[in-house]
Amino acid sequence: MKKYIAILIILCFYSCENITAPQSGFNQVKVVWSHAIPERPGGLVYLGETQPLIENNKVYVVSDTSCTAYNLKVGNILWRRALGNVRVISALTIPHDEDKIFINHVDFVKAFRKSDGQLLWTTTLEGLDWVHSKMIIGGSSLYLGQLGKVIRLNKQSGQIDLTIPLDSLSPDTVFQQGRGVAVSESDKRLYVGTGYYIPGAPATSGNIFCFDAITGQCLWAYRVPNRRVTLYTPSGTPFEVEADRAVYGVEVGGELVVCTIGQEVLALNRFTGQVVWSRFFMDDAFCAGLTISGNRIYIGAQAEPGVHCLDLVTGATIWKTKLRTGSINDILTVKDGKVYFCVGMGGEIFVLSANNGRLIWNGKPPEASRDRDALFISNLAVGEGYMVNVGSKKVYCLTSP
Asked: Domains in the chain, ordered, with CATH?
């Protein structure tokens, strides 16, 4: 069978590809403490994705039906507050300010006081918008992408003081999902990536918007163009399909807004919406695992599980590391020269060198050697020398390698 490889030629200062074999172990990493998650009726396991928050020797964790604050170093419970009869919270992260944490779900946003867990306010949301959503902070506000709109909430009161409709560049018969949201504090610009599906269409579609974060005025809009790609049958016969064009990840870096769009990574001038560079990967695909640190972009890959590191200015590949694990749809944290992430679909934590992508450490929970259902699941929190993860059966605090 012939193998066809599409080669994208791009200016690149240097690039390399690492193929790493996971080597589990707890020689470099120790379990500091763990707490069992109560088993749900029917033996159901927790499949939440919310990234815990580490700050000032505390860690705030969303698991099962509650939000819990632990002492980071010893693991004792400082406070615990119920979130309702909700088994899996849709929040991807826990935004916070000086004295509050904020938790969003399908039908609510809640604010809790950090010191004692007191519920400060609850805002009820309309609709049943079941999408794992990353709510973000911009100044005195919270921004959350929803089906057909982006809402802005006042951090102090929880009041929704601005609703931005996502109703342009798409048919009136469909709603755009505000999947990725990013804000630039310096000039109060809000960037939103959307995805939608027209019944009967061969693939999803998407747009990228820039709004004035104060007034909600649309400053520019970019329609993601359709794209046909050539695939091959096992016998080598070519055929064409439409590529998915929904926008998943959105991050701001310097003068650029960078987005992941299925198989494409796209950089736009964030002031004008003009294309600066684009990379299309015939053999890979990307979701929301997009992080910018300095002049580098780090992206988790799905089709060929691993991490891509690209140059922010040119889009050139600096390095790529392949991993023998599940698809990486998870949040990547770049800290102290390392890239940290949990592959929820594989139940493992990975730590790579941010400089060259070499594997530093990876592992599953210690119980995995005797219990195949013992997995690391949630997006990984990293800070103050520790890693915290909500697994399928326990909340774990680990030392950082």
From this structure: 12-33+291-401 (2.40.128.630)
